[in-house]
Amino acid sequence: xxxxxxxxxxxxxxxxxxxxxxxxxxxxxxxxxxxxxxxxxxxxxxxxxxxxxxxxxxxxxxxxxxxxxxxxxxxxx
Length: 77
Description:
The chain is α+β, with helices and mostly antiparallel strands. A two-stranded antiparallel ribbon has the order 1-2. Helices cover 25% and strands 14% of the residues. The longest helix has 19 residues, at 58-76. The protein has one helix at residues 58-76, and strands spanning 2-6, 9-14.
């Protein structure tokens, strides 16, 4: 299963068949669908994108999001 969190909240999920290889040798992209290269392209900005090798719990994601938000807030003030 693949889960997508945006700003610390679950925004979507998808069932993934078989194992997923996210190694540096694997061909994967964020914001674009490899099967349809000219379609389904994200137009916008992304920052603080993180990929983890193991699933995180919703609680772990909330803690990470809150920590990053506090750090960013302190930098801006």
